[in-house]
Amino acid sequence: MALELIAAIVASFVLGGLALILRKLSGNRLPKWFVSAAAGVGLIGFTIWSEYDWFARVSDELPEGVEVVWHPTEAMPLRPWTYLAPITTRFVAMDVRSVAAHPNNPDLRMAKLFNFARWTPVRDGLVVVDCMAKRHVLVTEGVEITAEGALKGGEWTQGFVSDEFETAACKAS
């Protein structure tokens, strides 16, 4: 976060400096506010680029075997440009290398999920997927799968978050 702030300030100084050079080369015919406006455009432009590029940068750095299974695009009122081009500020990745089938019910798969969100630390968790019934449950405190493959202490959520979620969990292992 600190590096992005520094980069935004540098972009502001660079564009402001270029505008100052242009103003001097024009014999001061460009208005004084042109330098401040260029600096502001640099700051805002870098910030917008950084927001849109975040998902690609982070997802490209995932290790092999960790796949993005859900990445919604959103439009936000405080970022009106996102109504024209929605932005991804969070996503879920699954470690397909660690997907394990239940020993007594091969339709049940357990996988590790990683929740990524802009400006927050990565959170991880476990999910159990019932590939036949197309449902899943997050494993939290008090939730368990019995030796027979029955869910105890939780409720199944019908449907998958996305097609990639089903593909990653049910096609693995």
Describe the protein.
The protein has 173 residues and is of the alpha+beta class. It folds into 2 domains: 59 residues, no CATH class; 106 residues, no CATH class. The strands form 2 sheets. Strands 1-2-3-4-5-8 form a 6-stranded antiparallel β-sheet, with helices on one face. Helix 1 runs antiparallel to helix 2. The longest helix is centred in the first third of the chain and has 28 residues. It is rod-shaped and about 85 Å long.
Give a short synopsis of this structure.
The protein has 173 residues and is of the alpha+beta class. 35% of the residues lie in helices and 27% in strands. It has 2 domains: 2-60, no CATH class; 66-171, no CATH class.
